[in-house]
Amino acid sequence: MADETDAPPAALILGATSDIGRAAAQQLAAAGYALQLAGRRADAVQRERDDLAVRTGQPVTMHVLDVTDSAAHAAFLEGLDPLPEVAVCVVGTMGDQAENERDPAKAAQVIAATYTAPAQLLGELANRFAARGHGTIVGVSSVAGDRGRATNYVYGSAKAGFTAFLSGLRNRFAGTGVHVATIKPGFVRTRMTEGLKLPGLLTASPDRVGRSIHEAVAKRRDVVYVLPVWRLVMLIIRAIPEPVFKRLRL
Description:
This protein has one domain: 3-Layer(aba) Sandwich (Rossmann fold). The chain is built from 9 helices and 9 strands. It has helices spanning about 20-30, 40-55, 75-80, 95-100, 105-130, 155-170, 205-220, 230-240, 240-250; strands at about 10-15, 35-40, 60-65, 85-90, 135-140, 180-185, 185-190, 205, 225.
């Protein structure tokens, strides 16, 4: 076992090879955390590990995990040394709405990768944090989960489920040493949104999301809209009567 008296606290990044995962890792390393980078592809995780070790000067380890393989969760968590102080989950996939509508298997993949699998893993991790007596979980959800819309309802429904899961987990552990934060970006300039026309005032950079993640950890925030304007936007969208909303085709 690692000597926890000498080592810096560890931050686990699930989805570490994503743009947001990398930004979160840099922010937490700058705050003094060692990094545990987890992702599906060993070669991609290795590249991130090598780069971030040089850039940050912090200890960085790599861990290969397909989060959708629930049978691998327990062994993955057992292999973390030390058990992290912070876990950030940015796992998920948007898929293509048109494909998701035509192919139930494609829709199931989006829902599993974006909601059910990450929720299973974070639930197991929360139990371990509770047994230890402390820890912080940060889940990156989306404003897409605040109301179902015709143009992305498969992805949006998965994010809605993930948001509800994080809320329930947070309330379960309220008053304990375990804290759960929900991060809600709107549009983010990442590889996943490359090629899409994004509105400038409503679009954040990965670095901005990374700063919001660090803020949620440092200040024990519950729900953070990365760009505050989205809180108002979604308040308005949620208030639109359903007969009107159906005609808008948002």
